[in-house]
Each structure stands twice: as C-alpha cells, then as structure tokens.
Amino acid sequence: MTEPLLRVRDLKTYFVTEQGRGTARAVDGVSFELYPGETLGIVGESGCGKTVTSLSILRLIPEPPGHIRPGSVIEFAGRNLLTLAPSELRAIRGNQIAMVFQEPMTSLNPVFTVGDQIAEAAIIHQRLSRKAARARAIEMLTLVGIPDPAERVDHYPHQLSGGMRQRVMIAMALVCHPKVLIADEPTTALDVTIQAQILELLDRLQSELGMAVLLITHDLGVVAGQADRVVVMYAGQVVETARTTDLFDGPLHPYTEGLMAAVPRIDAPKSRLQAIPGQVPAATAWPSGCRFHPRCPHAWTKCTIEEPPLLGLGDGDHTARCWLVQEPGRRKPKT
Amino acid sequence: MTAWLVRRVAASIAIIFAVVTLTFFLMAVAPGEPLLGPDERQVPPEVRAELIRQWGLDQPAPVRYVKYLRQLARGNFGLSFSLHRPVADALAEAIPNTLLLAGAALLIDFLVGLGLGVYQAWRVHRLPDVVLSNVTLFLYSVPTFWLGLILLLVFGEWLGWFPVAGMSDPILCPTVSSFYCVMDRLWHLALPAATLGFVGAAGTARFQRAAMLEISAQDYIRTARAKGASEQRVVLRHQLRNALLSFITLFGLAFPFLLTGSVLIETTFAWPGMGRLATDAILRRDVPLVNAAVLLASTLVVMGSLLADVLLAAVDPRLRVRGTA
Amino acid sequence: MTLHAWFALLVALALAGWTVGTLRRRTARYEPGRRFFRHPTAAWGIGVLAFFVIVAVAAPLVTSYSPIVHNDIINLKNQPPSWSFILGTDVYSRDLWSRVAFGARISLKVGGLGMLVAVTLGTLVGAVAGYYRRWVDAVLMRGVDVGLALPRIFVLLIAIALFDRLGETVLILVIGLTSWFGTSRLVRAEVLSVRERDFVAAARAMGAGPGRVIFRHVLPNAAAPIIVAAALGIGNVLLLEASLSFLGIGVAPPKPSWGSMIADGVPYLATAPWTTLFPGLAIALVVMALNAVGDALREALDPRQEAM
Fold it and tell me: Which of B125, B126, B215, B220 to mutate to test the interface with A (most CBs of A within 10 A)?
C-alpha cells in the first residue's frame, strides 16, 4: 500500500453567521485520503461542504467569519498544513498543491495579461526572471492546448472565451508542476462541448505530469468519467466512499442512490424523474442522528437518534455512513 | 480608439458651447438695467446711454449672442464693466492664483485620501479604521467655508502659526522676488489649501476604502493567494492596481468639487482667485466677465472629465483593447 | 433659558431616543431593517435627525426667546454662552440657540424639498431614458452631460442673485433644478438592468402600458439607489443652501439660516467665535447624520448582501 499524498482527518470548518443565527458547521468531520497519481472525485449537491473542504486544504477560507477547528488535520508530505507558519504555507500554495477555481472570468485578474498571471507562480516560487517566466508561460499555454500561444500570452482575460480562460487557469495552476491539483467544479461554468475538452485536458495532463487530482463536482457524469475513487458528501460529512466502479455498480447510501436515480437516462424506459424529496438542511441546524433521515425513504427510529459512523462491508474500500450497511433487512422495497 | 477620442472631444466642445449659450441667455434675461450695478449709480444718464449704445447693450439678446460668438472666435473676451479693463487681463491675473490653490488642495486630497483609504481597508473594522471613519465622516459633512473659518481661528488667530488673509505679504512680497517670498506664498497657501484639501481627502478616503474592500472580496484575489503570493504582493500588486481604476474616476470628479470649493475658500480667505472674481462679477452684473468665467469653469470641468476618461481607457485593459472574445 | 424650555428640550431628546427605539423594533422583522441598524452610526444618525426635526417642529417650545428680536443691543450683544442664553448671543443680541432652532426649520425645509425636486426630476428623466433607450436616451443623456458640466455654484449665483431674492420657493426650485443630473444617471443605470428582467417582459406581455410598467414594476426594483440618493441628497442641498447664504444670497434676513448666521459671525470671529461655531456645528451634525443614514441604507438595501 502506497502512502497517501494528502490525508485529511476530521476536518471541521465552521462559519460564524451574523446576528447569532448560530454557527454554520459547513464541514463537520470530513476525512479522506488522496494517493499519488489518482483522481479522487468529491461529489455532492450545493451546500454539502465540498467547496469549503477544498478551500480549507490550502487555508483559503476567509478567517472571519470562517475558521478551521483545532483538531482538524491535513497531512501533506508529513506535515500538518493547518499548523504551518504562513511563509511555509505560501511555499506550498501554487507550488506543491495548486488550485483551479470554478469561475474563470472572476478568478482571473482583469488588469494583468494572461501571461503575467501564469508566470506569477513561477516568479514567486522559482524566482525566474521576467524573460524566463514569459517563456515558461508560453510553454504552459502550449501545454494546455491554446492556439497561437506566443500571441495569446499578452492578451487580457476578457479577450478570451470561457473555455480558453479555464485552460489558462489550469496552466496557471500547473506552472510549478504541483504534486496535487485541486479542481473545484472546473467545468460547471462552461458549455457542454467545452466541458468535455477540459476534462480530457485534465486527464492528459495528469498522466503526463503524474500528479494527483482532487476533482470537486456536483455532476455524477463527470465523476464516472474521470475519477478513480469517489467521496460522496452530504450535510458537511462524507456519506460514502468507494472506487468509482463499485459506487456505480452498487451504491450503499440512500443519498447516493437518490442522486443516481435523479439523473435522466437515455437508455432506460421513460419514467418520472425521481427527485430526492425535501431540501438540503441549513448548515446551522443539521438534523439529529443521521443527517439524511428526513429525506430518506428507509429511515427508522434508530436513524433519528444515533448518527452512524462510516460502516463498511468488510473489504475496506467501500464504506457508507448508514445503518443499512449493518441492517440491510431494514431496506424498504422499491415502489 | 482614436475615433472614440475624436468623438469625445467633439462632444466636450459641444457641451461647453451649450453651457456658455445657456449662461449667456440666463444673464440676458436677468431683470435689471445694464450698467446699473452698485458702482455705476453715479454715472450721468447721458454717459450711460452712450456707453450702452457703444457696447451694443441696447440690441436684442440673439443679436448680442452672435456678436459675442464672433468676438470669442477672435479671442476677444470683451471688456469688464466693473473692473474697467479687458476681461482677459483680469482672468489672466486671477487664474494662476486659483490654479495654485486648487493644485495644492488636489495634492493634499489625493495623497492623504489615498493613503487613508488604503490604510483603513487594510485595518478594516479595527480601532484605527473606526476612528478614521468617523473623522472622515465629519470632514466630509462640514461646510467647507466653516471649516476654513475654524482653522483660521485656531491656527491663525489663537496660535498665530499662519496668516489670516490674502495670498502674500503685500509690503515685502508683492511679486515673487526671492526665496523668502516663495516661502511667504507657501505660508499663505497653507490654510486655504489645507481646508479644501482635507475636505476632499475625506471624500477620497471614504471612496477608496470602499473600493479596496470591494476588490479584496473578489475571486481573483483568492487566486493570487492560492498561487502562494505574500500578503504584501496581494495588496500592493493586485489590489492597488485594480483600485487605480476607481481612483482615476475620483480624479475626474474632483474638478467640480474644486470649483465650488475655490469660490467658497477664496471668499473666506480673501484669496485673489477666479472664484472670488466671478462671484463679485455676478453680484455686480458684469456680464462679459461672468460669461468668460463660466466659459472657463465649464471648460475646466469638461476637460477634467475628458482627462479622466482618457486615463481610464489607457489604464483599464477592458476598455483599451476591444477584445476578440 | 426658562424652565419650560429646558423641560421641552429634554422631552425632545427623549422623543428622539424613543424614535430610534421604535424604528428599530418595527423594522427588525425585515432583513434590510436589521442590516440597517447593524451599523453603529445608523442609530446615532436617526437619533440626531429625529432630534433636529423635533426641535424644528417644536421650535417655539424649546426656546425662550424670539429668533429675530434684538434683546438688548447695547448690553447683550455678542455674549458668550450662559445660563440664560445657552449658546450665547450674536452681534444683534439675538439668542443664538433660538436662531439655531428656528434655522433648523428653514434648513430642513429647503433641504428636504430641494432634494424632493431633484430626486423626482432625476428619477423621471433617468427612468424614461433607461426605459425607452435609443434616441430618447441619447437626447436626455446629452442634456444631463451639459447639466453636469454646468458650474453649479455660478449658475445658482446668477439665478438667485440676479433675480433678486424671490423667496424660499424659488430657492428650493432652483437648487432642485440644478441638482438632479447625477441621480438621473444612477436611475438610468438601474432601469437599464431591471428592464431586462423577466418580470418586466411578463408585464408587457400582459398588455401593461409603459407608464404602468415603469412605475409599478421597474422603479420599485430600482428603488435602492433612489432611496440612498435621497438621503445623501438632503445633505448636499443643505450644504449648498448654507454656502449660498454664506455668500450673501439665499434666505433673506432676518430669517435665521445657518449659513447666513455663519456669515454674520465672520467679522467677530476672534472676539465672539461661538456665533460662527454653533451654526456650523449644527450643519455638520445634521449632514453627518444624513450621510451616516445614507451609508447604512446603501448597505442595507444592497441586494448582493448574502450570508455565507
């Protein structure tokens, strides 16, 4: 068993809301591991805490109103990122762990050229000269498949299309050949055809550069196509983890089942779309017991009182936070 | 880009033209006989009638307007009724004084205002920011002339640090003839420029603080941090560069403020500038002087706005390069 | 000051405080209301404004002397603050506190009405320009450009000085007519964006005429900047009126206007500074309160405010 590259243990990120509406426990005890060379997908609806998780890794959470609880551990290369001094953390950001954000238009600085922004990480971490940095920027633009890189390097973000901007974001993240790339919904803001291109690009770059990718998305299709392993999140917690094939073959958690059932299938006979009843609860007031119980078709009394831990079937790889793993007989038949 | 510039300049000229026309006709329909201002009461009626005929004041307004335009085209601003000298001369004397005052005020305004705004945003919600916010609120809300009077009282009368009126020592330094006289000018300039400057700085600081805070909440600042940039780099390189854009807008808005301010401050401090000249001219119904002053004032305002637009286009890549998105 | 006046003054203070409290409670139900009062200066601003409005309305009650009567021109001129004249007297031996209190009437009236004229005109022009667009917009906005380039203080001086003081109404109108240009641009920008929203298309599809669409659908959604402009506008008009009065035109004597009071006090700045200090302080306090309230309103009504 290889050592994990990144190990998140019991991460808790809370936010103080205004006017004493309570603390929003956006990420409430999340643990997972990322192994070298693999793609780990984190899947969930909006509000489940996946983006906050990804921002917490690099400590990009705005400190008021958010804070990462002590006791959370994020291990990378043998060190806890959460206790590093600011200068040490900065040495890792953009250098060993890099991030690509969801909205390429607002995530790129409008007053600097694309080349300047790509080169910036190289200038900061590798102390390249302006000329060398510019050459590197052109290299990166070629790597991510942007035509006419020598010309484009002097363009501004508003001169590029959405798909190209996202490629620039990726180039910006990869300039120092990081070991881990965190991609937060990299394709959500793009057209479907461009989505496919970007995902393909990420795939290619990953194998070329041999890095691990943490892919955050709400789209099961993306996960099915890209991820080696999957983590499903709900209400600030991990509710299921598995290898992708195992997950899609037989999901254990009712929420995962619900997610999959909600996707319209072109190959299945036409039937009503099955939405998961109810709504995602507010982060300031997670339900008692199992957080999914108000929306779960199989819930019984135990689910309302006791919060299940991650339970597995014994093979260690596939776990779910659901009492049904222990008591499969309680599962109600499909109507 | 040049096409845009040409259009803007043409529009600016049109605007100035419109303003001058409006003012001309406003002065023309003002009630009261010409040449009956407070200075002219003693003039015998026959002399008055002769002067009126000479200066064409008995003609209808549109005719006078055309004549006025023709005069302007030849660079002739006419003769001042109240000062009995060419308008151009009177203005040429007064303008440098106002420019000196306004320039010094602008300098204080921007240096102090920018510095405060950036500092407040950096230390947002903490004690220095809270204190400064209230101070700027106060300075922004006081009547400029009142602040001038208070400063005059405290620093001029009570402490005696600065002179209380005028632009220079009339006996020792009627002209700038020595280093001492330069210092004398500066000494006289201090209070009026400080008044105008600090009131302006308060507004600038408030605006700039808001701009910096808005920028610091943007996604691209988070991206910069994610790349491992130090706080210093994030603020000085990323935030300030974007704040520059809002700052240029402020620059364009400063001109109207300085105009009103100079009128009030020059009156308060007996500063021989254009504001005071124009105010007196209006009260004395000195039509040629008023028209010229309004022409000048609106030109300054329009030019300021044009300059700001040009600077903005030069600095904001989104405006400069029509992209090929 | 007489005992009645002191008592009335304390009642006024209490009333002002009570106004703040009630307003806070009544608006606590609404999110913008809560956001508004979250500002430390917002409550203070409302309190100061309430106090001055109450003083203006009840001026005869909170003062013991008339604002225009010379009390004793020989012995009581330019007296410093004392128990009988709490803010002192001016050069004509008039009670300064009375003049400030009655002056509040004039300043608030001119400020409020002047702002009303300006904001109404600005909103109308901006809404029409933003809604109809094309040549209507072009023409109107060129007009606004000219308006913005007008050296306002000169135009006001000309309009008021030359037409001889025709009274407060003309003053209010002229100030209003020269102050609407900025508001119109703001409103136009809002209307341009609101106009594209679906509910506007729905209203038009229902057969609503342009007037109905503008007034019932577009403007309520564009209300936020209008309200903020109104609050800040009163302050600007107030300062403008004070400046005009200071320059010798504006409200006619012997009616007390804070600006002319300052001008009156200038020759005695060194010997009787209170005659200049207190009127100016009054202006500063009211405008500060208006600015504080305007700022808080702007943040409270900003639709982009969302909790994490």
Answer: B220
A15 at the C interface (CB within 8 A)? yes
**Which residue among B218, B226, B241 places its CB closest to the CB of A99?**
B226
Task: Give residue B139's pLDDT.
Answer: 94
Nearest chain C residue to A14 by CA: give it.
Answer: C308
ipTM of this model? Answer: 0.86
* Among A185, A210, A180, CA closest to A195: A185
- Distance between B241 CA and the closest CA of chain A, angstroms: 7
From A273, A272, A236, A234, select the one nearest A251 (Cα to Cα).
A234
Tens-place pLDDT, residues C77-110: 777 877 778 888 888 878 888 889 998 998 899 8
**Are residues A93 and B225, on separate chains, in Cβ contact within 8 Å?**
yes
Q: Does the pLDDT at position B116 exceed 90?
A: yes
Give the bridge partners for A13, in sequence order. A27, A68
Q: Whole-angstrom Cα distance, residue B256 to residue C179?
A: 13
Kindly determine whether residue A158 and residue B325, on different chains, have CB atoms separated by under 8 Å.
Answer: yes
Interface size between A and B, measured as CB pairs under 8 A = 84
pLDDT in tens, A218-272: 888 888 888 999 999 998 999 999 999 988 888 888 899 888 887 777 777 777 7
- Fill in the amino acid letter for C229: A
Judged by CB atoms closer than 8 Å, whether chains meet at A124 and B317 is answered as no
Question: Is pTM beyond 0.90 here?
Answer: no
**Partner-chain contact C308 A19, CB within 8 Å:** no
Compute the mean pLDDT over every residue in chain C, rounded to the nearest whole number: 83
Q: Pick C77 or B220 by higher pLDDT.
A: B220
pLDDT beyond 90 at C151: no
Q: How many residues does chain B have?
A: 325
C-alpha angle C180/C303/B308, rounded to 5°? 45
C308 vs A66: CB contact, 8 Å cut-off? yes
Q: Which residues of C touch A21 (CB under 8 A)?
A: 307
**CB neighbour class for B115 (10 Å; exposed up to 12, middle 13-18, buried from 19):** middle
Other Cβ atoms closer than 10 A to B212: 24
Residue owning tokens 């209003």: C176
> Distance between alpha carbon C148 and the CA centroid of its chain, in Å?
20
Query: Do residue B321 and residue A125 have CB atoms under 8 angstroms apart?
Result: no
Neighbours of B91 (CB within 10 A): 20
Q: For residue C306, what pLDDT is reported?
A: 39
| Residue C72 to residue A73: CA distance in whole angstroms | 82
| Nearest-by-Cβ selection for B15 from C149, C152, C259 | C149
Residue among C144, C130, C119, C108 nearest C225 (CA): C119
Sheet containing strand A97-100, edge to edge, reads A97-100, A180-184, A212-217, A39-43, A229-234, A237-243, A319-320, A311-312
Q: Compare A285 and B43 and report the one with higher pLDDT.
A: A285
A62, closest residue in chain C (CA to CA): C308
Q: With bands split at pLDDT 50, 70 and 90, how would you rate the model's confidence at C308? A: very low
Widest CA span of chain A, in angstroms?
A: 67
Please check whether residue C308 touches A, CB under 8 A.
Answer: yes
Mutate to test the interface with A, among C39, C306, C308 (most CBs of A within 10 A): C308
Residue B110 pLDDT grade (very low, low, confident, very high; cuts 50, 70, 90): very high
Residue B224 CB-half CA count within 13 A: 23
- pLDDT tens-place string over residues B66-88: 878 887 777 778 777 777 788 88
Q: Phi and psi for B196 in degrees, rounded to 5?
A: -60, -40
> Per-residue confidence at B325, pLDDT binned at 50, 70, 90?
very low
Query: Do the Cβ atoms of B137 and C41 come within 8 Å?
Result: yes
Q: Report CB contact under 8 Å: B242, A111.
A: yes
Phi and psi torsions of B118, nearest 5°: -65, -45
